[in-house]
Design a protein that fits this description.
Structural class: alpha/beta
Order of helices and strands: EHEHEHEHHHEHEHEEEEHEH
CATH architecture of the largest domain: 3-Layer(aba) Sandwich
Helix content: 40-55%
Strand order of the largest sheet: 1-11-8-7-5-6
Distance between the termini: 54 Å
CATH topology of the largest domain: Rossmann fold
Radius of gyration: 19 Å
Strand content: 15-25%
CATH class of the largest domain: Alpha Beta
Number of domains: 2
Bound molecules: NADPH dihydro-nicotinamide-adenine-dinucleotide phosphate
Shape: globular
């Protein structure tokens, strides 16, 4: 069997068109969705991510504000800036690019962002709301995965989903979103005994491990849906996922490639969350 490719680039482009249309509607009501991104220090990967977020905002007609702070900025100064943005009416989403320098407490920073502007969906209030099935900002990568499946007409209810990885930003929340949609969910991680035993039972596998080509054909059953979240470099320096695409795509029913799979959805859902925040701010007026 040769898997059908889930084309994240195409699905993201479609979603972005829809978002751009909604942005225009909001603008006609006097609101331009605004996203503030705080970048601390000069981590090269973070600079690239931030640049891509700014570009996406501009393309969709949103307002984008980049705040760059020096590596040695104090935690107090960063918190004061966030407080200012929490109050700023032209800003609907606040994102602090992670990781932060070691002297700054990431947890404290995330918790200082108003849950109403937490478009990354990392604030404990939004996580709690997501877990209890209430209106929330959903974390962007997990949310993007759910949209990929929905757009590919892959049903979730009653399916067995195995999530490999349990980080707070990908593994844990994506499992919760599947559970909210009535899947049976198994989490695997570095202490899991006999990973293959679990993954072989999966109708849908999400790989969020951070190890190049970690999931092999022997890990999956025929026809499984395989979602590859990984963004890694292989020994030759080439971008690759957590799934060995060449062999797994011969056995899976559906597969997301890397690049052009999950990656393009993450920023798209960030834009969606910023739009949602702006629209909700209108309702609070
Ligand atoms: P983390 O490093 O935070 O988590 C990795 C998880 O994998 C951990 O839960 C860890 O288990 C588990 N793990 C490690 N080794 C094994 C193993 N041998 N067997 C089973 N599980 C294992 O990574 P992230 O969740 O942040 O990211 C995962 C990947 O996704 C990375 O490649 C990252 O670059 C990519 N990513 C992509 C995004 C996108 O937009 N496409 C967004 C975010 C991340 P334990 O908890 O026990 O340590």
């Amino acid at each position: 069997m040769t898997a059908q490719i889930i084309n994240g680039k195409e699905i993201a482009a479609k979603k972005r068109l829809e978002i751009a249309e909604e942005v225009e509607k909001l603008k006609s009501q006097g609101i331009t969705p605004g996203l503030a991104v705080i970048l601390v220090g000069n981590n090269h990967a973070s600079q690239t991510y931030v640049k891509n977020k700014e570009k996406a905002c501009k393309e969709l007609g949103m307002y984008s504000l980049l705040i760059e702070m020096l590596e040695e900025v104090s935690e107090g100064e960063l918190l004061a800036k966030i407080e200012e943005l929490n109050e700023a009416t032209e800003i609907h989403g606040i994102l602090v690019q992670l990781p932060l320098p070691k002297h700054i407490d990431e947890k404290k920073v995330i918790e200082s962002i108003s849950p109403l502007k937490d478009v990354d969906g990392f604030h404990p209030i939004n996580i709690g709301r997501m877990m209890t099935g209430q209106n929330a900002f959903l974390p962007c990568t997990p949310y993007g995965i759910m949209v990929l499946l929905e757009e590919s007409d892959i049903s979730i209810s009653g399916k067995h989903v195995v999530v490999v990885g349990r980080s707070n930003i990908v593994g844990k929340p994506v499992g919760q979103l599947f559970l909210n949609q009535h899947a049976t969910v198994t989490y695997c991680h570095s202490r899991t005994k006999d990973l293959k035993f679990h993954t072989n039972q999966a109708d849908i596998i999400v790989a969020a491990v951070g190890i190049p080509n970690f999931i092999k054909a022997e890990h999956i059953k025929d026809g499984a849906v395989v979602i590859d979240v990984g963004i890694n470099r292989n020994e030759a320096g080439k971008l690759c996922g957590d799934v060995d695409f060449d062999e797994v795509s011969e056995k899976a029913g559906y597969i997301t490639p890397v690049p052009k799979g999950v990656g393009p959805m993450t920023i798209t859902m960030l834009m969606y969350n910023t739009l949602k925040s702006a629209a909700e701010s209108l309702n609070r007026k």
